[in-house]
């Protein structure tokens, strides 16, 4: 933490933390950046190895509100453990973050939606078999058995829907299922996830949300639906396609997050 704080002299504490998913790094362009801290400059901080993930913290303002942005995250499929994946969330919380906005690129499971749509996450299914809360509990962070009945803050979800309507942005509501990856889903897995009640599937987010809720941080989540998973006519979804679709939808997502963040101020 000292390596980060040394770069932030004179800057206000960030009230909102934002995690940028695959292909969504352009959201940083909407932010007024005052300081940047590469992960490589933070002792023992895991490095992001995924294409399109810059691997740094950005500090500044968005919508007039002090924010910290995690431009690039870490994943279980990179070989990191849950604690490594959540280190960014825990750092941002210790710097003053009160609300976390998490974004991801996800496959669409709902046949009524299309690739390129945006979804606000109302709940999630942790299908990774992992949790960042295993082992000794750190009481300073939160309780041994944290409640997850409102993992995604209902008031924040309502604010996102209201702002999307005001901006003329189509915003779906749905359940996100998190898997380990990095392989894409089989048709049988796709059918199973849909029957479990999931609307989108991805390889991130759930570890970070669990860690944030453990620490009492309010959470708002968005998925950029980059490809459509239809089990009877599955199509390849190479990472280049995922990134390209996320980039296409990133403009609307940036407008929406900026508008929501301004309301949080």
From TrEMBL:
- EC number(s) on record? 2.4.2.1
Q: Which GO terms describe its biological process?
A: nucleoside metabolic process
Kind of enzyme, top EC level? transferase
UniProt keywords (A-Z) are: Glycosyltransferase, Transferase
Q: Does the keyword Transmembrane helix apply?
A: no
* Pfam family for this entry, one: PNP_UDP_1
NCBIfam families associated with the record: PNPH (TIGR01700), PNPH-PUNA-XAPA (TIGR01697), PRK08202.1 (NF006054)
Q: Which family does it belong to?
A: Belongs to the PNP/MTAP phosphorylase family.
Name assigned to this protein:
Purine nucleoside phosphorylase
Organism listed in the record: Desulfovibrio psychrotolerans
Q: Upper lineage ranks?
A: Bacteria, Pseudomonadati, Thermodesulfobacteriota, Desulfovibrionia, Desulfovibrionales
Protein's gene: deoD
């Amino acid at each position: 933490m000292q390596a980060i704080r040394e770069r932030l002299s004179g800057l206000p504490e960030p009230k909102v933390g934002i995690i940028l998913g695959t292909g969504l790094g352009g959201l940083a362009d909407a932010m007024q950046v005052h300081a940047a801290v590469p992960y490589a400059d933070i002792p023992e901080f895991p490095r992001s190895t995924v294409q399109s993930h810059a691997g740094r913290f950005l500090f500044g303002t968005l919508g007039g509100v002090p924010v910290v942005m995690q431009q690039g995250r870490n994943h279980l499929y990179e070989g990191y453990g849950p604690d490594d994946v959540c280190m960014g969330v825990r750092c941002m919380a210790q710097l003053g973050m009160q609300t976390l906005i998490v974004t991801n690129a996800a496959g669409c499971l709902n046949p009524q939606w299309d690739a390129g749509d945006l979804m606000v996450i109302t709940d999630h299914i942790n299908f990774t078999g992992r949790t960042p809360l295993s082992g000794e509990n750190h009481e300073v962070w939160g309780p041994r058995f944290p409640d997850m009945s409102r993992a995604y803050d209902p008031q924040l979800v309502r604010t996102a829907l209201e702002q999307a309507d005001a901006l003329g942005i189509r915003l779906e509501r749905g359940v996100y299922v998190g898997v380990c990856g990095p392989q894409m889903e089989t048709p049988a897995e796709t059918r199973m996830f849909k029957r479990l009640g999931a609307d989108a599937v991805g390889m991130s987010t759930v570890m970070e949300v669990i860690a944030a809720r453990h620490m009492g941080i309010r959470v708002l989540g968005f998925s950029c639906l980059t490809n459509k998973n239809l089990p009877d006519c599955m199509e390849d979804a190479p990472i280049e396609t995922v990134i390209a679709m996320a980039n296409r939808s990133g403009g609307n997502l940036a407008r929406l997050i900026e508008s929501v963040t301004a309301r949080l101020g």
